[in-house]
């Protein structure tokens, strides 16, 4: 009974975090973690995500390759965050709504990546390279 209760709580926590779009990386950034604290937080967050995703796969009665694929994507989304394109697909957006969403999401990613580059005190080619990869990852290219 305790295991079921714990699994349910993990699903709720993971579901809440996913619904808010808060990935482990975003949470770590908001907390301004670095070094050992960042490593520890990311490991714990990934472990929690794995447990929540395993529980969600079990709830959906998935097995074999379907379970593996679902769990891998679920954990990646929880740790890394969903890309703009994945979010648009998840929301089943099409046409002008999809274009508008993607443009807004990309603009938000550019602002966030520029802020991260400034926080890391990057300049010149290093800043450009960092920002380009950051936006590409966030957008889903």
What's the arrangement of secondary structure elements?
Blueprint: H1 2-20, H2 24-30, H3 35-59, H4 64-80, H5 84-90, H6 95-119, H7 124-139
Provide a descriptive summary of the structure in words.
The protein folds into two domains: 1-81, no CATH class; 82-141, no CATH class. The chain has helices at 2-20, 24-30, 35-59, 64-80, 84-90, 95-119, 124-139. Residues 1-20 have low confidence and may be disordered. The termini are far apart. By secondary structure, the chain is mostly helical.
- Biggest sheet descriptor: none
Low-confidence sequence ranges: 1-20
Secondary structure: helix percent: over 70%
The total count of strands amounts to: 0
What is the averaged pLDDT score?
82
Distance between the termini: 44 Å
**Protein structure class:** mainly alpha
Integer count of domains: 2
Helical region count? Answer: 7
Query: Approximately what portion of the residues adopt beta-strand conformation?
Result: under 5%
Taken from the alpha-carbon principal axes, the silhouette is flat
- Which H/E pattern describes the elements? HHHHHHH
CA-atom Rg in angstroms: 17 Å
Main attributes of the structure:
2 domains; disordered N terminus
Summarize, please.
With 141 residues, this protein is mainly alpha-helical. The chain has helices at residues 2-20, 24-30, 35-59, 64-80, 84-90, 95-119, 124-139.
């Amino acid at each position: 009974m305790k295991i079921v209760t714990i699994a349910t709580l993990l699903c709720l926590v993971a579901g809440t975090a996913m619904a808010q779009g808060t990935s482990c990386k975003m949470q770590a950034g908001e907390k301004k973690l670095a070094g050992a604290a960042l490593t520890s937080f990311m490991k714990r967050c990934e472990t929690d995500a794995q447990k929540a995703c395993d529980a969600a796969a079990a709830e959906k009665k998935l097995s074999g390759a379907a379970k593996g694929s679902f769990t891998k994507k679920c954990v990646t989304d929880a740790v890394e965050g969903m890309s703009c394109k994945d979010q648009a697909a998840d929301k089943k957006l099409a046409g002008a709504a999809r274009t508008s969403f993607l443009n807004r999401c990309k603009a938000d990613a550019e602002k966030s990546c520029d802020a991260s580059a400034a926080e890391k005190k990057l300049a010149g080619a290093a800043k450009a390279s960092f920002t380009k990869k950051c936006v590409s990852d966030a957008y889903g290219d």
